[in-house]
Amino acid sequence: MDAATLIGSQPSKLTSVKALAESLHLSSIPSSYTFPKHANDEAYSGTTESIPIIDFSLLTSSNPVERSKMIQELGNACQDWGFFMVTNHGVPESTMKAMIEACRQFFELTEEEKGEYEGKHVLDPIRSGTSFNASVEKVLYWRDYLKIFQHPQFHSPNNPPAFRKLHRKGRKSGKQPSIMIANLYPPCPQPELAMGLPAHSDHGLVTLLIQNEIGGLQVQHNGKWVNIHPLPNSFLANIGDHVEYKSVLHRAVVNNKHVRISIALSNGPALDAAVSPASKFLEDGWSPPAYGAMTYREYVELQQSNKLDGKSCLERIRNS
Ligand SMILES: O=C(O)CCC(=O)C(=O)O
Ligand SMILES: [Fe+2]
To answer: Is the CB of 241 under 6 A from ligand 1?
Structure first.
């Protein structure tokens, strides 16, 4: 495919940013990828702030003092940041590396092979594509993705084979859905103009995120964007829209040197569970409720079918 086909005025079908980045020896990005920036968008890079670290082994410690101290810290982390790093979680580093590698191999497939998983509906069990929701977005994001529903029903693409083997091992029991979202951010010739994934909060209860060694995640804290540098072999965890704590806005920026891969494991309530404000709060006088009842399925559909507009999807459903 030549450059003209890729950036032609109205390509009939969008190719991946991976193909775009590789086939053009470009020094500038197509205008459709230019993300409008605002004055308050700059990341705060001070050294005093870093996200809380939760030592998972202490959460399950047989020493009650250690355990309760860590539980307290977890509560504070959810309250203050909605985002924290999890260390000593017991998942072997080799498994995490193998997951990243399997996703890298998926993105290396040909456009035709990946096209098999293009998906028509946001709840299709396996979906591969580019940007976030290209049919409704004015600006395209410098990101390709692969989404797989892994629970309650397990799905896996046939290709690459490494994928299938790896994920079979990771099956779990229970009713709540878990969705794996792999993100690929190829090197971008003008990273300051593009955006990998714009500000959003995640649906669900808690998201666990791993990445290759390359930075790019930013989290909003006290109105400022903070660069996140996870410790090797740690998970990042963030609170989703369906937990009582405030879910936090985050985004992914891109760079001009390295391929970045991240994998978000999203855990939510059952798709048909109706979620609404807890009655205790309404009895305590927090009424009328700010949100009506909605199933998790309806919420995921709403978030995934619209564009990411820099706000949490919760704003969209808030009673005025
Ligand atoms: O790539 C990242 O660091 C963030 C990914 C993310 O926020 C998501 O997939 O929801
Ligand atoms: Fe996210």
So the answer is: no
